[in-house]
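quick one
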Amino acid sequence: VSQVTAEWEMKMEYLVREDGSLRFDAPDQIAAFCRDHGLRLFGHTLVWYAQAPPAFARLAGNRPAMTERLRAYVQAVVGRYRGLACGWDVVNEAVAEDGSGWRDSLWSRELGRLEHMTLAFHAAREADPTAPLFLNDYNLESLPRKRVVFLKLAETLLRAGAPLTGLGTQTHVAADLPAGAVRDAIRDLASLGLPVHVSEMDVSLTRARGLFKDRQALLEGQKRVYGEAAEAFSGLPSDRRFAFTHWGLRDGDSWLRRENAADAPLLFDDRGRPKPAAAAWEGGLRS
Ligand code: 9MR
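structure w/ 9MR:
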Protein backbone atom coordinates (compact mmCIF):
# COMPACT_ATOMS: atom_id res chain seq x y z
CA VAL A 1 0.00 0.00 0.00
CA SER A 2 1.29 3.44 -0.84
CA GLN A 3 1.75 5.91 1.97
CA VAL A 4 1.73 9.70 2.14
CA THR A 5 3.40 12.10 4.59
CA ALA A 6 2.48 15.78 4.57
CA GLU A 7 5.66 17.88 4.39
CA TRP A 8 4.17 20.77 6.30
CA GLU A 9 0.41 20.67 6.77
CA MET A 10 0.33 18.50 9.91
CA LYS A 11 2.93 20.45 11.88
CA MET A 12 2.32 22.95 14.66
CA GLU A 13 3.51 25.65 12.28
CA TYR A 14 0.39 25.01 10.25
CA LEU A 15 -2.12 23.72 12.78
CA VAL A 16 -1.75 26.20 15.65
CA ARG A 17 -3.19 29.65 15.10
CA GLU A 18 -1.90 32.75 16.86
CA ASP A 19 -4.67 32.56 19.47
CA GLY A 20 -3.95 28.89 20.14
CA SER A 21 -6.96 27.48 18.30
CA LEU A 22 -6.33 24.73 15.74
CA ARG A 23 -7.06 24.66 12.03
CA PHE A 24 -7.41 21.40 10.16
CA ASP A 25 -8.47 22.48 6.67
CA ALA A 26 -5.38 21.36 4.73
CA PRO A 27 -4.71 18.18 6.70
CA ASP A 28 -8.37 17.21 6.37
CA GLN A 29 -8.07 17.60 2.60
CA ILE A 30 -4.97 15.44 2.56
CA ALA A 31 -6.71 12.87 4.76
CA ALA A 32 -9.73 12.83 2.43
CA PHE A 33 -7.44 12.38 -0.57
CA CYS A 34 -5.77 9.42 1.14
CA ARG A 35 -9.12 7.91 2.04
CA ASP A 36 -10.45 8.33 -1.52
CA HIS A 37 -7.36 6.78 -3.09
CA GLY A 38 -6.73 3.99 -0.62
CA LEU A 39 -3.45 5.50 0.60
CA ARG A 40 -2.03 5.28 4.09
CA LEU A 41 -1.50 8.63 5.82
CA PHE A 42 1.53 9.07 8.07
CA GLY A 43 1.40 11.84 10.67
CA HIS A 44 4.37 14.22 10.82
CA THR A 45 5.13 15.62 13.38
CA LEU A 46 3.85 16.29 16.89
CA VAL A 47 6.78 17.64 18.92
CA TRP A 48 9.67 19.30 17.10
CA TYR A 49 12.27 21.63 18.62
CA ALA A 50 12.07 23.81 15.51
CA GLN A 51 8.44 24.69 16.10
CA ALA A 52 7.29 26.57 19.15
CA PRO A 53 4.22 28.58 18.16
CA PRO A 54 3.49 31.82 20.07
CA ALA A 55 0.44 30.23 21.70
CA PHE A 56 2.81 27.81 23.44
CA ALA A 57 5.76 30.16 23.94
CA ARG A 58 3.46 32.51 25.88
CA LEU A 59 2.99 29.79 28.51
CA ALA A 60 6.72 29.70 29.35
CA GLY A 61 7.20 29.66 33.11
CA ASN A 62 3.82 28.03 33.72
CA ARG A 63 4.59 24.33 33.66
CA PRO A 64 1.09 23.03 34.46
CA ALA A 65 -0.48 25.13 31.72
CA MET A 66 2.20 24.15 29.20
CA THR A 67 1.76 20.48 30.09
CA GLU A 68 -1.98 20.67 29.62
CA ARG A 69 -1.74 22.62 26.36
CA LEU A 70 0.72 20.15 24.85
CA ARG A 71 -1.26 17.13 26.00
CA ALA A 72 -4.49 18.60 24.63
CA TYR A 73 -2.76 19.46 21.34
CA VAL A 74 -1.35 15.96 20.80
CA GLN A 75 -4.66 14.36 21.71
CA ALA A 76 -6.65 16.64 19.42
CA VAL A 77 -4.40 16.06 16.42
CA VAL A 78 -3.89 12.32 16.86
CA GLY A 79 -7.51 11.80 17.83
CA ARG A 80 -8.75 13.57 14.71
CA TYR A 81 -6.99 11.10 12.41
CA ARG A 82 -7.41 8.03 14.55
CA GLY A 83 -8.25 5.04 12.40
CA LEU A 84 -6.82 6.73 9.33
CA ALA A 85 -3.24 7.65 10.29
CA CYS A 86 -1.00 4.61 10.05
CA GLY A 87 1.54 6.07 12.48
CA TRP A 88 2.99 9.29 13.91
CA ASP A 89 6.34 10.97 14.26
CA VAL A 90 5.76 11.84 17.90
CA VAL A 91 9.13 13.41 18.60
CA ASN A 92 11.21 14.76 15.75
CA GLU A 93 14.93 15.61 15.85
CA ALA A 94 15.51 15.32 19.60
CA VAL A 95 19.25 14.66 19.27
CA ALA A 96 21.64 17.62 19.01
CA GLU A 97 22.98 18.49 15.56
CA ASP A 98 26.47 17.10 16.23
CA GLY A 99 25.18 14.12 18.18
CA SER A 100 26.62 15.36 21.45
CA GLY A 101 23.43 14.93 23.46
CA TRP A 102 19.77 15.85 23.51
CA ARG A 103 18.57 19.03 21.93
CA ASP A 104 17.52 22.07 23.86
CA SER A 105 14.06 23.44 23.01
CA LEU A 106 11.09 25.27 24.45
CA TRP A 107 9.67 21.87 25.27
CA SER A 108 12.76 20.51 27.02
CA ARG A 109 13.31 23.71 28.99
CA GLU A 110 9.74 24.06 30.13
CA LEU A 111 8.67 20.45 30.59
CA GLY A 112 11.91 18.54 31.14
CA ARG A 113 14.44 16.92 28.81
CA LEU A 114 12.91 13.48 28.96
CA GLU A 115 9.50 14.37 30.38
CA HIS A 116 8.30 16.38 27.38
CA MET A 117 8.93 13.35 25.19
CA THR A 118 7.23 10.83 27.46
CA LEU A 119 4.30 13.21 27.81
CA ALA A 120 3.89 13.40 24.03
CA PHE A 121 4.15 9.63 23.56
CA HIS A 122 1.59 8.93 26.28
CA ALA A 123 -0.81 11.56 24.96
CA ALA A 124 -0.54 10.12 21.45
CA ARG A 125 -1.19 6.62 22.74
CA GLU A 126 -4.22 7.81 24.72
CA ALA A 127 -5.67 9.32 21.57
CA ASP A 128 -4.91 6.32 19.35
CA PRO A 129 -4.48 2.97 21.08
CA THR A 130 -2.93 1.20 18.09
CA ALA A 131 -1.02 3.56 15.79
CA PRO A 132 2.74 3.00 15.66
CA LEU A 133 4.52 5.89 17.41
CA PHE A 134 7.95 7.01 16.20
CA LEU A 135 11.08 8.81 17.25
CA ASN A 136 12.50 10.35 14.07
CA ASP A 137 15.87 11.98 13.33
CA TYR A 138 18.43 12.84 10.65
CA ASN A 139 22.16 12.51 9.98
CA LEU A 140 22.06 9.04 11.50
CA GLU A 141 23.93 7.77 8.41
CA SER A 142 26.65 10.40 8.17
CA LEU A 143 27.24 10.73 11.92
CA PRO A 144 27.49 7.32 13.61
CA ARG A 145 27.99 9.13 16.91
CA LYS A 146 24.60 10.77 16.53
CA ARG A 147 23.10 7.35 15.79
CA VAL A 148 24.48 6.00 19.06
CA VAL A 149 22.88 8.85 21.02
CA PHE A 150 19.62 8.37 19.09
CA LEU A 151 19.49 4.66 19.93
CA LYS A 152 20.32 5.37 23.58
CA LEU A 153 17.53 7.91 23.70
CA ALA A 154 15.12 5.33 22.29
CA GLU A 155 16.18 2.88 25.01
CA THR A 156 15.80 5.55 27.67
CA LEU A 157 12.27 6.30 26.46
CA LEU A 158 11.35 2.62 26.49
CA ARG A 159 12.77 2.19 30.00
CA ALA A 160 10.77 5.21 31.12
CA GLY A 161 7.64 3.44 29.88
CA ALA A 162 6.99 5.60 26.81
CA PRO A 163 4.90 3.82 24.14
CA LEU A 164 7.61 4.21 21.50
CA THR A 165 7.01 1.56 18.84
CA GLY A 166 9.11 2.60 15.84
CA LEU A 167 12.29 4.38 14.74
CA GLY A 168 12.47 6.82 11.85
CA THR A 169 15.63 7.71 9.99
CA GLN A 170 14.98 10.66 7.72
CA THR A 171 17.88 9.83 5.37
CA HIS A 172 18.53 13.30 3.99
CA VAL A 173 21.90 12.37 2.60
CA ALA A 174 24.32 13.55 -0.09
CA ALA A 175 25.53 11.79 -3.23
CA ASP A 176 29.07 11.41 -1.85
CA LEU A 177 27.96 9.46 1.22
CA PRO A 178 30.47 6.63 1.69
CA ALA A 179 29.35 3.19 0.58
CA GLY A 180 27.87 1.23 3.46
CA ALA A 181 26.81 4.24 5.53
CA VAL A 182 23.08 3.98 4.77
CA ARG A 183 23.15 0.20 5.12
CA ASP A 184 24.88 0.36 8.51
CA ALA A 185 22.40 2.93 9.81
CA ILE A 186 19.37 0.89 8.75
CA ARG A 187 20.81 -2.29 10.28
CA ASP A 188 21.79 -0.58 13.53
CA LEU A 189 18.34 0.92 13.94
CA ALA A 190 16.68 -2.43 13.31
CA SER A 191 18.87 -4.05 15.96
CA LEU A 192 16.74 -2.46 18.66
CA GLY A 193 13.84 -4.68 17.59
CA LEU A 194 11.38 -1.97 16.50
CA PRO A 195 10.10 -1.37 12.96
CA VAL A 196 12.21 1.10 10.97
CA HIS A 197 10.85 3.91 8.82
CA VAL A 198 13.11 5.41 6.16
CA SER A 199 11.07 8.51 6.59
CA GLU A 200 12.24 11.43 4.39
CA MET A 201 14.80 10.18 1.93
CA ASP A 202 16.50 12.41 -0.59
CA VAL A 203 20.05 12.41 -1.95
CA SER A 204 21.42 15.89 -2.53
CA LEU A 205 23.86 16.55 -5.35
CA THR A 206 24.82 20.05 -4.25
CA ARG A 207 25.50 19.15 -0.63
CA ALA A 208 28.10 16.63 -1.79
CA ARG A 209 31.65 17.83 -1.27
CA GLY A 210 35.10 16.78 -2.31
CA LEU A 211 35.68 13.95 -4.72
CA PHE A 212 32.59 14.18 -6.88
CA LYS A 213 33.25 17.13 -9.13
CA ASP A 214 31.07 16.66 -12.17
CA ARG A 215 27.35 16.21 -12.40
CA GLN A 216 27.55 12.78 -13.97
CA ALA A 217 29.62 11.44 -11.08
CA LEU A 218 27.16 12.97 -8.64
CA LEU A 219 24.21 11.30 -10.39
CA GLU A 220 26.07 7.99 -10.27
CA GLY A 221 26.67 8.46 -6.55
CA GLN A 222 23.00 9.31 -6.05
CA LYS A 223 21.95 6.19 -7.87
CA ARG A 224 24.24 4.06 -5.74
CA VAL A 225 22.97 5.54 -2.46
CA TYR A 226 19.32 4.99 -3.43
CA GLY A 227 20.04 1.42 -4.47
CA GLU A 228 21.90 0.71 -1.24
CA ALA A 229 19.10 2.14 0.90
CA ALA A 230 16.44 0.08 -0.86
CA GLU A 231 18.51 -3.07 -0.61
CA ALA A 232 19.28 -2.58 3.08
CA PHE A 233 15.64 -1.85 3.87
CA SER A 234 14.26 -4.79 1.95
CA GLY A 235 16.88 -7.00 3.63
CA LEU A 236 15.34 -6.39 7.05
CA PRO A 237 13.02 -8.98 8.57
CA SER A 238 9.45 -8.07 7.64
CA ASP A 239 8.52 -7.09 11.20
CA ARG A 240 11.29 -4.42 11.15
CA ARG A 241 10.12 -2.79 7.91
CA PHE A 242 7.59 -0.06 8.53
CA ALA A 243 7.77 2.00 5.34
CA PHE A 244 10.07 3.77 2.90
CA THR A 245 9.20 7.42 2.31
CA HIS A 246 10.77 9.78 -0.24
CA TRP A 247 10.76 13.48 0.67
CA GLY A 248 9.02 14.39 -2.55
CA LEU A 249 8.78 12.89 -6.03
CA ARG A 250 9.91 15.51 -8.57
CA ASP A 251 13.22 17.33 -8.16
CA GLY A 252 11.58 20.68 -8.78
CA ASP A 253 9.29 20.25 -5.77
CA SER A 254 12.06 19.41 -3.30
CA TRP A 255 12.77 21.58 -0.25
CA LEU A 256 16.44 21.33 -1.29
CA ARG A 257 15.71 23.26 -4.48
CA ARG A 258 15.04 26.29 -2.29
CA GLU A 259 18.52 25.86 -0.78
CA ASN A 260 20.28 25.40 -4.12
CA ALA A 261 18.61 25.86 -7.49
CA ALA A 262 20.95 23.27 -9.04
CA ASP A 263 20.01 20.44 -6.72
CA ALA A 264 18.15 17.39 -8.02
CA PRO A 265 17.78 15.06 -5.02
CA LEU A 266 14.75 12.91 -5.88
CA LEU A 267 13.82 9.94 -8.08
CA PHE A 268 11.96 11.92 -10.75
CA ASP A 269 13.17 14.96 -12.70
CA ASP A 270 11.36 18.28 -12.92
CA ARG A 271 9.06 16.95 -15.62
CA GLY A 272 8.28 13.81 -13.67
CA ARG A 273 10.43 11.42 -15.69
CA PRO A 274 12.19 8.69 -13.72
CA LYS A 275 15.94 9.19 -13.29
CA PRO A 276 18.52 6.35 -13.21
CA ALA A 277 18.23 6.50 -9.42
CA ALA A 278 14.58 5.40 -9.66
CA ALA A 279 15.49 2.14 -11.38
CA ALA A 280 18.33 1.60 -8.90
CA TRP A 281 15.97 2.13 -5.98
CA GLU A 282 13.36 -0.21 -7.41
CA GLY A 283 16.02 -2.81 -8.18
CA GLY A 284 17.30 -2.56 -4.62
CA LEU A 285 13.83 -3.20 -3.24
CA ARG A 286 13.53 -6.40 -5.24
CA SER A 287 16.99 -7.67 -4.40
O1 9MR B 1 10.34 19.81 3.48
C1 9MR B 1 9.75 20.57 4.52
C2 9MR B 1 9.56 22.00 4.09
O2 9MR B 1 8.65 22.06 3.01
C3 9MR B 1 9.08 22.82 5.26
O3 9MR B 1 9.01 24.18 4.90
C4 9MR B 1 10.04 22.68 6.44
C5 9MR B 1 9.57 23.43 7.68
O4 9MR B 1 8.34 22.98 8.14
O5 9MR B 1 10.17 21.29 6.79
C6 9MR B 1 10.66 20.50 5.74
O6 9MR B 1 10.70 19.15 6.14
C7 9MR B 1 11.62 18.84 7.19
C8 9MR B 1 10.96 17.77 8.05
O7 9MR B 1 9.73 18.22 8.55
C9 9MR B 1 11.86 17.34 9.18
N1 9MR B 1 13.14 16.91 8.69
C10 9MR B 1 13.83 17.85 7.82
C11 9MR B 1 12.92 18.24 6.65
C12 9MR B 1 13.66 19.18 5.70
O8 9MR B 1 13.95 20.38 6.33
